[in-house]
UniProtKB/TrEMBL annotation:
<feature type="transmembrane region" description="Helical">
    <location>
        <begin position="535"/>
        <end position="556"/>
    </location>
</feature>
<protein>
    <submittedName>
        <fullName>Embryogenesis-associated protein EMB8-like</fullName>
    </submittedName>
</protein>
<feature type="compositionally biased region" description="Polar residues">
    <location>
        <begin position="470"/>
        <end position="482"/>
    </location>
</feature>
<feature type="domain" description="Serine aminopeptidase S33">
    <location>
        <begin position="157"/>
        <end position="371"/>
    </location>
</feature>
<keyword id="KW-0472">Membrane</keyword>
<dbReference type="GO" id="GO:0034338">
    <property type="term" value="F:short-chain carboxylesterase activity"/>
</dbReference>
<comment type="similarity">
    <text>Belongs to the AB hydrolase superfamily. AB hydrolase 4 family.</text>
</comment>
<feature type="transmembrane region" description="Helical">
    <location>
        <begin position="20"/>
        <end position="48"/>
    </location>
</feature>
<dbReference type="InterPro" id="IPR050960">
    <property type="entry name" value="AB_hydrolase_4_sf"/>
</dbReference>
<keyword id="KW-1133">Transmembrane helix</keyword>
<dbReference type="InterPro" id="IPR029058">
    <property type="entry name" value="AB_hydrolase_fold"/>
</dbReference>
<feature type="region of interest" description="Disordered">
    <location>
        <begin position="470"/>
        <end position="520"/>
    </location>
</feature>
<dbReference type="Pfam" id="PF12146">
    <property type="entry name" value="Hydrolase_4"/>
</dbReference>
<keyword id="KW-0812">Transmembrane</keyword>
<dbReference type="InterPro" id="IPR022742">
    <property type="entry name" value="Hydrolase_4"/>
</dbReference>
<dbReference type="GO" id="GO:0047372">
    <property type="term" value="F:monoacylglycerol lipase activity"/>
</dbReference>
<feature type="compositionally biased region" description="Basic and acidic residues">
    <location>
        <begin position="485"/>
        <end position="509"/>
    </location>
</feature>
Amino acid sequence: MDSSGSVSDTSNPLSAYQLLFTALSLIPLSHLLAALLLIFLVFLYNFFEIHFLHDFIRAFRGDRVCITASDPDFYQSVVSKCRILHGRYSSTPWLCSPHLQTIFLSIFGSSPPVSYKRQLFRVPDGGTIALDWLRSSDVKYAAFGVNVNTPDNEKTPTVIVIPGLTSDSSAAYIKHLAFRISNRGWNVVVSNHRGLGGISLTSERVYNAGWTEDIRSVVGHIHSQHPESPLFVVGTSIGANVLVKYLGEDGANVPISGAAAICSPWDLLICDRFINRRLVQSFYNKALAIGLQDFALLHRSNLSQLTEWESIKKSRSIRDFDNYATRILGNFETVDAFYRHATSATYVGNVAVPLLCISALDDPVCTKEAIPWDECRANRNVVLATTPHGGHLGFYEGITANSLWWARAVDEFLGVLHSSSYIGVIKQMRKTTAPTPSFSIDQGPYVSVLEDGMVTAVGDEQTDDTMQDLSNQETANVSTSAEVILDKEEADHVRKKNDQPERSEEKDPNPTQATTPARKCTDCLARRSGRSFWLLAYIAIITTWPMVRPALSLLFKKYKYLMPGGSRKR
């Protein structure tokens, strides 16, 4: 009786819980707190994606950089000589997390002392862009406190830097890059976005992730002012997206010798889904949205197109701000339409200059899911370098975290590219390569249907000539006045040009002349298709004969029995 009663008591769920709590009460409180602390640390280790144990097992030697390059000539001439790209990246031990790297760069990151010289550039639509110059002479004599005005060499390379979202020339990572490149003896100019860098908006046009007209105007202006100076462009974050889109739109028509895209979002739709997916990403989403709100409120008086200011103030994500502000200013129907338009991954295939792309696989803002691996691998001018760690624009290295790995890699890449003979090869290829096709549907070929039913495509030569005139018009008329550059003469030039009567186009006396090559090709294909038909018939008979022969034999025997001679013989 007693034994059975004890068994029934232990099988009772309430008794089991009582035994469990009794066992826990016997454990010392310090041990319980230590276990809870351990569980909390494991949670933080995975939540913040810390890789300290990974680095510790590897003795803090870092991980190798993964390089994706398809052109052997480009690789042998330039990429193979970049020791930093072929080495390892080892992050700062106490910044062994992508979130620590990104937050430290934004809040606590130190930067070398630089002193810019500002130049205001006025674009044709009335907007103003602040160009902050850092020349090699300014950095060279900065340590001695002497300002020496040395004459600039017209052949000194110039690097144009495009900052990220809501960033300007005062950002720590921009100063790291500018200081390192200027120490090489090159000139650096930071092209600040409209409304940033302490400059107010002078037009209703506002920059966004897909707006390439500003960088196109800046590149054209600097190239016209220094035609013999090699031009390089470096874009970071959103600036990298703008850079790649600009290079893909203009193809071989850009006056640039090389470029570098750092931590580009590539596909804004994928990045939008990613940044709204996890809890930790929501902090970045809200922080970036607050920066955009401050920008809009600062220039509220110049943004008359925006009406829902209460919704803009309540925006808690980038998508909310883009819905109430960016898409309206950019004349887009939906936010997704704007993201599709601004995506740079679709333009990678048309890049015609050497381009270095650097991305971290643990980037907490621009996910690795958006990296166009196949497009980069298919383009011979693109080299993609990825690292397992680094965060978003962080890449801190060294025990004191006073250096950015990607800044060293870009500086080395541009130096090797400039000193190599590959630039001459690219320029020669531009002369022999057909012009890059346009992305506009309105510039597609016309279709001509002849009387005999022949359909031919006739190119829109008039559109190409017009576009060429417009491109020449944009870069040919730039007037400089001390520190401010105004384009008033350009408007007068356009007005005079529009007043001139258009020349009448010569009509083609033989409208079917354009279809002659097409007819020849069609006749040739017809003759070949005739021979191919008999060849395919012969192959079909040979391959199917083992199966057809028994059927024919059986059919012949039945037919033989039905014949009169066959029946008499039987």
